[in-house]
């Protein structure tokens, strides 16, 4: 039988960013990586990404390589 602590850990593992391609909206700005839904244990230092200033509406995280797309 799993304890409550172990189920919390399992839920935390599900927060791991397993995709490297994320679409965001203007409601998500200012964009930072890792996002607020990422698990704390696997987080890198927070970096703000100026996606709204990019010509093609994309920004790539220098730490984890996640590519963000700004959807208008």
Automatic annotation (TrEMBL):
InterPro entries: Znf_CHCC (IPR019401). Residues 32-68 form the Zinc finger CHCC-type domain. Gene3D superfamilies: q5lls5 like domains (2.60.260.40). Pfam families: zf-CHCC (PF10276). It comes from the Bacteria. This is Putative Zn-finger protein. It comes from Cocleimonas flava.
């Amino acid at each position: 039988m799993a304890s409550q602590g172990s189920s919390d850990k399992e839920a935390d593992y599900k927060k791991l960013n397993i995709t490297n391609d994320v679409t965001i909206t203007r409601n998500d700005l200012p964009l930072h990586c890792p996002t607020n839904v990422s698990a704390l244990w696997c987080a890198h230092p927070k970096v703000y990404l100026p996606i709204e200033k990019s010509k093609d509406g994309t920004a790539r995280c220098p730490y984890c390589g996640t590519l963000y797309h700004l959807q208008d």
